[in-house]
Amino acid sequence: MKVSLNWIRDYLDLPQDLTAEKLSFDLTMRTVEVESVVNPADSVQGILAGRIQSIKAHPNADLLRVCMVDI
Question: Looking at residue 8, what is its pLDDT?
Answer without folding.
Answer: 93
